[in-house]
Design brief:
The chain is built from six helices and nine strands; from the N terminus they run H-H-E-H-E-H-H-E-E-E-E-H-E-E-E. The chain is of the alpha/beta class. Strand 1, helix 3 and strand 2 (about 65-70) form a beta-alpha-beta unit. Helix 2 packs across helix 3 (about 55-60). Its EC number is 2.1.1.214.
Length: about 250
């Protein structure tokens, strides 16, 4: 009926990848997510929680231009402690771009930057053909956003000094998914897809817990069992209309 591509799971194995982290996505799951998003040649794909860029690697294999953001400066710049056994610190060329170079898809690399997913940094337009991401759950990677419970002193023009390093605070799961769906409704092209993982406590799970948005149609909801009590669900949504200017239009259980 068709030719399979299971050899990609081996040839793109994380074990042999130049740059990895604690939460680097398994190659097989990365390619499944790219397939769910219908990633094709010359698409522009974005990951707002890019980490070490495993999802960008898979999308670039299918000919898509890839970009991403993450709040973690060290991960984006390939600095700090290594996740590899018997290696203390990351090398000078351990970064996302080097991973794409390893698989000969560096020409599909747009860029990655340090940015807070809860803050708007993009112009208000439909920019991306697909948004594919694995948001942090607060287990192996902390959930953080910029901000403080204290009043932060700004200059009179409202701008921070160039040397300013923002304070971070907790970024709750419900807020992560609220922001992700609102962002996707604004910045996906019509017919573009959002694919992401939703962590679930299995004994209490029901379908009403999946976040919904009037501009996004739920396409699929697949379970990956992690333990007897926990799992994560791969959610695929497709943009069916443009958002109204005045409505946030988000429904969360």
């Amino acid at each position: 009926i068709a030719d399979g591509q299971r050899e990609l799971i081996r040839s793109y194995s994380v074990k042999n990848r130049h740059f990895i982290g604690n939460t680097s996505m398994d190659a097989g799951l990365s390619f499944i997510m790219a397939n769910q998003a219908k990633v094709k040649e010359n698409d522009l794909v974005f990951d707002p929680f890019v980490g070490t860029g495993s999802l960008l690697v898979s999308c670039s294999h299918f000919g898509a231009y890839v970009c991403g953001t993450d709040i973690d400066y060290n991960t984006i710049h390939g600095k700090g402690r290594s996740s590899r056994k018997n290696q203390t610190w990351r090398g000078p060329d351990e970064n996302i771009r080097a991973n794409l170079r390893q698989y000969k898809t560096e020409n599909m690399y747009v860029d990655v930057m340090v940015s807070d997913a809860s803050k708007p940094v993009w112009r208000n337009a439909a920019l991306f053909d697909a948004i594919i991401t694995d948001p942090p759950y607060g287990i192996r990677e902390s959930t953080r956003r910029t901000g403080s419970h204290k009043d932060t002193i700004k200059s009179p023009d409202g701008l921070y000094a160039e040397s300013h390093v923002p304070v971070s605070q907790a970024y709750h799961l419900s807020d992560i998914f609220t922001d992700l769906l609102n962002f996707s409704a604004r910045h996906l092209v019509l017919g573009g897809r959002l694919v992401y993982w939703l962590p679930v406590y299995r004994p209490e799970y029901c379908e009403e817990m999946v976040p919904l948005h009037p501009c996004l149609q739920l396409i699929s909801n697949c379970e990956q069992t992690l333990s007897s009590h926990t799992c994560r669900r791969l959610i695929t949504m497709e943009k069916i209309k443009e958002p109204e200017v005045s409505a946030t239009g988000l429904h969360l259980s």
